[in-house]
Amino acid sequence: MRLVLLGAPGSGKGTQATRLREHLQVPHISTGELLRAAVAAGTPLGLQAKAIMSAGNLVSDEIVLGMLEERFQRSDTVHGFILDGYPRNLSQANALDVLLDRIGQSMDLAIQLEVDQELLVARLAGRAQAEGRADDSPEAVRNRLRVYEEQTAPVVDHYRTQGKLAHLDGVGSLDDVFTRILEAISPYADVG
Ligand code: B4P
Predict the structure, then answer these.
(1) 31-74 pLDDT, tens per residue?
(2) pTM for the whole thing?
(3) Domains by residue range for the chain, with CATH
(4) Residue 74 annotated in active site
(5) Which atom of ligand 1 is nearest to the CA of 11?
């Protein structure tokens, strides 16, 4: 099945996508991870993205779409995928629809994980201590939450309008949230 995970930074997208990958046996495609890999490898794209990401801003639509198109060319995506961190704005949502249409596919479901702001900040502060990610500093987190509200929140309506949105409570244990996601995707279990 073809799934998009939506939610603010710290809402659990990456965390739950890792579990879903095992369950659905389809690849987990995280644009954040693809970008962090480019930064770590010091590629020209990575050098361009590094400062933008550290400040908590969005990398340009062209760069991210190019990366995604390249990833979709790999044969492991034919039976589906879990997209995490993309689309981040309406222009990316429209570009994704066009891209999928071109390869004869369409999204099955978008899952939105809802978590209140105070808890998001606490989760990201915890990760800052554990992993030291540059964009988990208090200042970058504040900016990422603002960017989410301004640019990414409208993407939720894009999928709601298409009748493809499942809005879920993202608060609770990892197992609780995972169970809610499994319930939401169960009608699509046979989608190849
Ligand atoms: P991402 O990598 O997408 O980072 P994120 O929004 O922080 O989400 P992530 O998946 O990592 O965290 P999660 O909520 O699972 O993006 C990073 C940056 O890359 C962006 O700011 C941007 O610069 C760039 N970028 C990425 N995609 C882009 C795009 N399409 N266009 C332009 N730029 C793009 O987890 C967070 C923490 O919460 C973890 O520590 C986890 O353990 C904890 N947690 C999760 N679930 C929990 C639960 N139920 N209870 C308690 N803790 C929980």
Answers:
(1) 999 999 999 999 999 999 999 999 999 999 999 999 999 999 99
(2) 0.94
(3) 2-26+101-185 (3.40.50.300)
(4) no
(5) 14
